[in-house]
Specification:
Largest sheet: 7 strands, parallel
Number of domains: 2
Order of helices and strands: HEHEHEHEHEHEHEH
Helix content: 25-40%
Shape: globular
CATH superfamily of the largest domain: NAD(P)-binding Rossmann-like Domain
Low-confidence stretches: none
Radius of gyration: 19 Å
Strand content: 5-15%
Number of helices: 8
Distance between the termini: 42 Å
Oligomer: single chain
Mean pLDDT: 95
CATH architecture of the largest domain: 3-Layer(aba) Sandwich
Strand order of the largest sheet: 3-2-1-4-5-6-7
Length: about 200
C-alpha cells in the first residue's frame, strides 16, 4: 500500500537500490500457531514459497505433516526458530494474552509476528512495548485486542501493517459463508443438525 500511495502522489522518482526493501520469504522459516483449516491453508502457500514450516498446537497432525512437510514443535521452539510467526489458532478465554512481552522476547530480532486469528490472543500493549524495544522487526495485524478500536501507538509505527479484519474478504469466501448460513437455517427448520455448531 505504501508503494501504491507513493506512485499516486507523484513521489516516485525512479528506482533506487535501497528503496522499499523488505525480507524475502523463500528459504525462511514460518511458524504457524494452530494447524487447523486456516493454518493448513497458510502452510500450503508457505510451501509454495519454499519455506520451512513449523507448527504448534494442542495436538499433532501427522497426515498434514506428510502433506505439507511441516514439523511439530513446542510453542517455545517455534518462537525461537521462526522468521515469521503466524497466529491462526481458534480462540477461547484461556488463550487471552497467550502472546505477551515474554513470549515475543523469545523471537528473533529479525522476526515478524502475524495475527490473523483473534485480537485478544496478543497482549497489544506488550506488543507495542516489544516493538518499541526492538525485540522483533515488525508485525502484521488483521485483528485487534479491543476491536474495532486500534491502539494508537500501532497506527504510528512504520514497521506495523494493520488491516480492518478482512482476512476472509473475498467474493468466494463471503458467498460460501452466506450459503452455509442459509443451509443451516434450512437444516434447523427441517429438524437436522446445523453444521459448525460452536455451543454444543
Amino acid at each position: 500500500p505504501e508503494g501504491d500511495q507513493l506512485c499516486r502522489t507523484k513521489g516516485f522518482n525512479g528506482w533506487s537500490p535501497l528503496f522499499f526493501r523488505g525480507r524475502e520469504v523463500s528459504g525462511k522459516t514460518i511458524g504457524i500457531i494452530g494447524l487447523g483449516e486456516i493454518g493448513s491453508a497458510v502452510a500450503r502457500r508457505a510451501k509454495g514459497f519454499d519455506m520451512d514450516i513449523l507448527y504448534s498446537g494442542p495436538s499433532r497432525h501427522e497426515e498434514k505433516e506428510q502433506e505439507l512437510g511441516a514439523r511439530y514443535v513446542s510453542q517455545d521452539e517455534l518462537l525461537k526458530e521462526a522468521d515469521f510467526v503466524a497466529i491462526n489458532c481458534s480462540y477461547n478465554e484461556s488463550m487471552r494474552h497467550m502472546i505477551d512481552y515474554n513470549e515475543i522476547k523469545k523471537m528473533k530480532p529479525t522476526a515478524y509476528l502475524i495475527n490473523a486469528s483473534r485480537g485478544p490472543i496478543v497482549y497489544e500493549a506488550e506488543l507495542v512495548k516489544a516493538l518499541q524495544d526492538g525485540l522483533i522487526e515488525g508485525a502484521a495485524l488483521d485483528v485487534f485486542e479491543f476491536e474495532p478500536e486500534i491502539t494508537e501507538e500501532l497506527k504510528s509505527m512504520d514497521n506495523v501493517v494493520i488491516t480492518p479484519h478482512i482476512g476472509n474478504a473475498t467474493f468466494e469466501a463471503r458467498d460460501m459463508m452466506a450459503e452455509i448460513a442459509a443451509g443451516n437455517v434450512v437444516k434447523a427448520l427441517t429438524g437436522d443438525t446445523p453444521d459448525y455448531i460452536v455451543n454444543k
